[in-house]
């Protein structure tokens, strides 16, 4: 039941919809692009002379692969862009940066990885390709420890144990293509279980909760004031499916007040586009509420960039569908549009609506902060919230940001709770006045519906406790 609720947090952040089931999702958290060929090259190595560039003379077919040919690079730049001609190779990704084409990671320099990406070919046409894009982007003062890849051999050993150094830290686990990992157990070196099979109901909540099925898996230690510091470190057991390996990146920062850079993506919301350098009015209002809520934790935020997704890509992702088993490949594809961002930031996606009445979602609890181009790299909110009674776009957006920075719900839909915070309000099942098994916002008035991290957005909760503010101020994504 524990895992079920954590998945609920991730995918149905604030709706009253039925929880998804836990069947395995589609494989491949992190795979090479696999884009069909559309020209004479896919990478520079394919060219006897010149480099592999976009064919600017080819007809613009929306949704088709970028046509590529061997030619001399132009004198244009390779940094930020708003159109193809800004880039030496004519490839301007929808995240607003120039990129070079590739087939696999070996084609990329400087720690970049080769991933599927979408390029702006005009204001109405997006085309895809394999592109070299940054992987880990961290604010000054944050260290990243990249451990050697650990082998996953699921046929002989479906469970692997990894040592985890003392916190506080955020670890992100990136399995090789075709493999998946989930958290099975986290323990102290003396065997004390902090998360695992013996903790799983309201009477035995985990001491250090983990969103065990996050894609990618992330793990914050300690994850709250009630979780021990563990100076000797931890033993972490992962369940693996598929064969391959897993890369572990452990991030450490210096907790304190800071600023959050936001990269805003508009995905098929009618009329939503930048107004000069400013966001559209609806988003400005939501950001004003976000600033007001986060100021209680001494955190500020600013808009670092804005991106309008064009064409069929926007049409397809404007309404995020789920599969019958509760997964959302479209949401994962949306978060991967962060590919190409070149500065540490939180990607924020605005879509028209989400399946099953969901209002928003986070790419993890916490999200993979600083890791770009992954299936969890961002938060999403539905513009359909605008005009709905008892809902606020700003509060839902900030709730998802709270998840991404490391906050769990104060109470779940059934009154249970998993977070490791000592001072947050609890709304237990005794408050289910109408006996329908759902702890609605109205039933939890005075018992947590006022809190930002209440499970339902219909309380319009904005409050943060001191322990929640401490978690937020520890987020490695903040600029300090
Ligand atoms: Ca009820
Ligand atoms: Zn939530």
Walk me through the structure.
This protein is 12% helix and 26% strand. It is of the alpha+beta class. Among the domains are: 2-26 and 257-473, Collagenase (Catalytic Domain), CATH 3.40.390.10; 44-133, no CATH class. Calcium ion is lined by residues 432, 434, 436, 438, 440, 443.
Short description:
Strand 14, helix 2 and strand 15 form a beta-alpha-beta unit. Among the domains are: 242 residues, Collagenase (Catalytic Domain) (3-Layer(aba) Sandwich), CATH 3.40.390.10; 90 residues, no CATH class.
Distance between the termini: 38 Å
Instruction: Give me the number of helical elements.
Output: 6
In which range does the helix fraction lie?
10-25%
Radius of gyration: 22 Å
Largest beta sheet: strand ordering: 15-14-17-20-19
What is the overall shape?
globular
String of helices and strands = HEEEEEEEEEEEEEEHEHEHEEEEHH
CATH topology of the domain at 2-26 and 257-473: Collagenase (Catalytic Domain)
Q: Write the CATH architecture name of the domain at 2-26 and 257-473.
A: 3-Layer(aba) Sandwich
CATH class descriptor name of the domain at 2-26 and 257-473: Alpha Beta
Number of strands: 20
Largest beta-sheet characterization: 5 strands, mixed
- Unreliable parts: 1-29
CATH superfamily of the domain at 2-26 and 257-473: Collagenase (Catalytic Domain)
Ligand identities: calcium ion, zinc ion
How are the SSEs placed, and which strands pair?
Elements: H1 2-11, E1 51-54, E2 68-71, E3 92-93, E4 113-122, E5 125-133, E6 143-152, E7 159-164, E8 169-175, E9 180-188, E10 193-195, E11 217-221, E12 234-241, E13 244-252, E14 258-267, H2 281-294, E15 299-309, H3 311-317, E16 319-320, H4 329-335, E17 346-351, E18 353-354, E19 360-362, E20 379-382, H5 393-405, H6 466-473
Parallel strand pairs: 14-15, 14-17, 16-18, 17-20
Antiparallel strand pairs: 1-2, 3-4, 4-5, 6-13, 7-12, 8-11, 8-13, 9-10, 9-12, 19-20
Bound molecules: calcium ion (CA) and zinc ion (ZN).
